[in-house]
Amino acid sequence: HLSSGIFDNLSKLRVLNLRANNISGRIPNSLIKCKELTYLSLHNNSLEGSILLEIGNLTKLEF
């Protein structure tokens, strides 16, 4: 489980690889505060809910 404010002070984070960590729950809204994020991997977890629409505001994120 990821706490809701886990990304609040990580605005300069560039790479986030949390794959295969048995994480459950929802993706925290605070993820959109990571404005420098270029790589995001969350697969092979037990996350639920939809992807935040605001993730499109992370303009450096490569898909």
Describe this structure in words.
InterPro entries: Leu-rich_rpt (IPR001611), LRR_dom_sf (IPR032675). Keywords: Signal. Pfam families: LRR_8. The chain is mainly β and 63 residues long. It has one domain. The protein is built from no helices and 4 strands. The chain has a two-stranded parallel ribbon. The chain is globular, with a radius of gyration of 11 Å. The mean pLDDT is 95.
Essential attributes:
two-stranded parallel sheet, globular, about 60 residues, Leu-rich_rpt, signal, mainly beta, LRR_dom_sf
Quick structural overview:
By secondary structure, the protein is mainly beta. Helix content is 0%, strand content 19%. The protein is globular, with a radius of gyration of 11 Å.
Strand order of the largest sheet: 1-3
What's the overall average pLDDT, rounded? 95
Specify the overall morphology: globular
Total number of domains: 1
Could you tell me how far the N terminus lies from the C terminus, measured between alpha carbons in angstroms? 24 Å
Computed Rg: 11 Å
Give the fraction of residues assigned to helices.
under 10%
Please provide the ordered H/E string of secondary-structure elements. EEEE
Helix/strand structural class: mainly beta
Q: Which spans have pLDDT < 50 for at least 5 consecutive residues?
A: none
Largest sheet: 2 strands, parallel
Helical run tally: 0
User: What share of residues are in beta strands?
Assistant: 15-25%
β-strand number: 4
